[in-house]
Amino acid sequence: MKQIIIFGNEQTNLNMAFFDSSWFIGIWAGFISSVLFLVFIYILRPRIKISPQISKSTKAGKTVYQIKIVNKSFFKVIDIHFELTLMHPMGEPKGRGLKMKRIQLKADKLWYISARDTFIRKSEYAPFAVRVIILEDLEQVWNQEEDFLDFKIIAKHGFSGFNKVIRERFNHNSCIIDGEFENGTSMVIQPN
Fold first, then answer.
1. Are strands 176-178 and 54-59 parallel, antiparallel or unpaired?
2. CB within 8 A of 29, min separation 6: which ones?
3. Taking the CB of the first residue and of the last residue of the chain, which one, N or C, has fewer CB atoms within 10 A?
């Protein structure tokens, strides 16, 4: 049953009057703008891929371990911090905890990583891909079955300034592969 109110010569449907009010439009506009802002935040955050394996090679008689990271965004990534931690599970009186040992890296901070190549902008050196060099002998340090490595990156998007923490967990030392990473976005390790 519809109720119709007559004001002079105009008829107004009460059901339509509710949806035509300015406060209802304001609520929907606010909701839609909030959703669009969240989508904007999600899109304009650093998109970094970490290699699921660690390369091992010998240079000048010294063993070198590397983890490769690639900026998958069309914008540069700035203010990048790296941390590699050896985690050792241990028993505690009321549960289990983790004993952490920080693994030394050659560099644990970078100012920026270039944006990935596009069909307009190409580089033969792949400045959007970086290899993080590990200074310690991983196979000597990482010698217990239950231990694992936790690699963390904190980076800031070059356009929006939004931060993101990216993690990769290396569960077993079988992820150390002899060889070198391929150039570019590839995470494949070519044997020596």
1. parallel
2. none
3. N
Tokens 């010698």: give the residue. 143
Residue 34 backbone zone (phi > 0: left; psi -120 to 50: alpha; other: beta): alpha
**Per-residue tokens: 30:** 């606010």
Neighbours of 38 (CB within 10 A): 10
Distance, CA of 82 to CA of 50 (rounded, Å): 11
Q: Tokens 């650093």 — which residue?
A: 46
Note the pLDDT tens digit of each residue in 126-166: 889 999 999 999 989 998 889 999 999 999 998 888 899 99
What are the angstrom distances between the C-alpha of 107 and each of 14, 124, 190? 68, 23, 24
pLDDT, tens digit (0-9, with 9 covering 90-100), for 71-126: 998 889 999 999 999 999 887 777 788 889 999 999 999 999 988 876 666 667 78
The CA distance from 158 to 44, in Å, is 9
Q: Which residue has the tokens 């494949």?
A: 188
- pTM for the model stands at 0.77
